[in-house]
Amino acid sequence: MELNGLTALVTGGAAGIGAGIAERLAAEGMHVIIADLDERSGSIMAERIGGSFLRTDLANPADVRAAVDAAGPVAVLVNNAGGIEEPCFPAAEPAKWEQTLDLNLRAVMLATQLVLGPMRERGGGTIINIASTAGLGTAVHDSPEYAVAKAGLIHFSKWVAAKYGPHHIRCNTVSPGGVGDSQRGGSKFAEIYSARTPLRRMARSTDVAEMVRFLISPKSDYITGQNILVDGGWTIY
Question: Which is the catalytic residue, given 146, 193, 222, 237?
């Protein structure tokens, strides 16, 4: 799939990993639509890359539908929006668990559901879901609700790949480890993480963006249903 002139919808593209992805895809000549709740940062980023901005609360199904409708036919969907706010389980109220699943899993499900039909009619497309090494179950995560959501996202992506591959729709997951320019925890966390990682540094948003770019390029047109780790070898141990 040639990228120049195609439209990509990137959720959570106002800052951090999402902004890195939006910038990288725009550099390939794609028209990038950023869907994010942060109107100020999203608008600035969209103007910088020559794209468009849609103010969207990804945890709100009505907003997700409105964003996909406003974006129109897209060749690429990058479900990047996600995250967690403290307090986490078990200190948080039960509703907090639902809110985390809404943002990190249900929003992805709904956005994907809404683009599958149009992609099929247009002869194909690519969906990239940004998960996390938290969803692999290789270590206990401080936020079990977040880890559960990301684990579900990885398995959901495999289902989409299996069911829609015959319609030339590819779906892959990218799972970053610690990302230095979008990670909470400060310098101490970065020091500990880097010391345990074979490459001795945290990931950068550009590392994740390059993987996304590869997975939507013609060079990867036989890759689908995969969960690609961008963690510098963190999960080796």
Answer: 146
